[in-house]
Amino acid sequence: MKQKLFIAWCCIHLLFIVVINLLGSYKSYHEFYNKPQDSRPVRLVAGLLNAVPFNYYGRYTGAETGYGFFGINVRTNGLLIGECDGKKLSPVFASYETSLRFFTMANSATDGYISEAEGRTPDSLRGSLTVKQAYDNLVLKNIAFTLYTKYGCGDSSATLSYNLLNYPSMEALQKGYPPKYQLVKMVTLHIGLH
Amino acid sequence: MVFSQKHIHFPAAIRQPGSQRLFPGWLFFFRINIAGFALLHFLSIQPDFADLYSRQGYVYPDILDASYDHLTPTFYSLQALLQQIHLPVSYDALLAFSRVAYPVLLVLLILGAGTRLNAILALFFQLLFCKSIHLYQYGVDNFTTIGLFYCCVFPVGSIYSLDNLLRKRPSLAPHHTLFLRLFRAHLCIAYFFSGFDKVLGPTWLNGEAMWKALHAHNYYSIVNLDFIPQSWFFTASSWITIILELGYAVCMNLSRVRKYWLAGILLMHTGIALFMGLFFFSALMILLNLAAYYAPYIDPDKWATPLLQRPKRHSP
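^ inputs. structure came back:
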């Protein structure tokens, strides 16, 4: 009996993981090709999985997210660079792992801006882009404030910019573009410090 | 740690039908590697702990908390809850306590002491640490949650553990293959969808995504690949990645090709570590693959006799 119950749970657990992944793939595909996500069955299943018990289940089992790592496309990373009193400041961490986490956070705080610049809006942000951007602004201001407090800034205002780490595409390189990194400024915030 | 021979002998009776060559030692491998990995990963951020978690961090705890869904507690919400129930604990005290408790729980999990309870508590603290800085989290955190969750569900304390030493009748996980099948099925689904999402767009098929992953995703790449801009290399490695991932479910479960496919997967994750700088993510994926498809095939007879008791080879 115990074994049968366990097998039944295994089937439900695996089905949950499959459905979460199918929904993830559906969303990624439609966002990438900028197509409307208007399938009724998908909305029905997504609505069901958004129920509170499923949310808790997904969180505690680690099954809440899909596994489409680096698919459909690979996102370009970027750097947060502050400028104050003519000095360029960037966060410095003792651990490589923290730097990696900081990259992730900077990417998540600038996703809304980049999507808007590219003319596509992720479904998760549709209708709430301004709220998301207001929050992202707050996060970036917080980072700027900590950065300038930590490394010292004598000026009354400063800027913080998010710069994409651009590298020529394969095609461009074959056409003779120099293999050099370029920092492309995507977002610039002007912040009053006092 | 010393284990008597009775604890590491695998009677034929524990073998399940159809699993003549699968041994429950993988549960031990899984437990010590997941807990050991989580411990090392946690220790790796210690030099910058204050920058991530303290009130002087780059993003303050209340700002981080404002955009969180609160399905699990964060340090900020937990402290507020403790205040509400008249347990006035400061944020810093809660942080300091958790900073000690989590690694201690992981060490106990490695040793297999109070295994299930400690696994549940370790999962709670892992989610607490991870979700308190949810903007900073990436794939490795999710897989650590999965690993610790399976430590709660699987009988990982039933083999090579302090719990087993203290039991009068040590249990040797008689139904371990059921747990192994679930774990393998989870990995198969994960790899399939990882490959499936890649073939949905054109950039993985023409090699551009691989090119971008190795150049514009992270500039901490150990090996510079600028000397090979020819597209065939990146197109070929993209397709190899896709084939490895899409074929994982079938080929990892065919005994004839398993070891070659496993070697391919391990090489792929080593590449991700070296060229994309995702060291911890790659290490965890390698450990999960070894636990699922290598450890169950380790011949326990080789380990049944302690090294010191093995007959010495005499030179002629």
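Residues 148 and 174 of chain A are 42 Å apart (CA to CA). Chain A has six helices and four strands.
thumbs up if we can close this ticket
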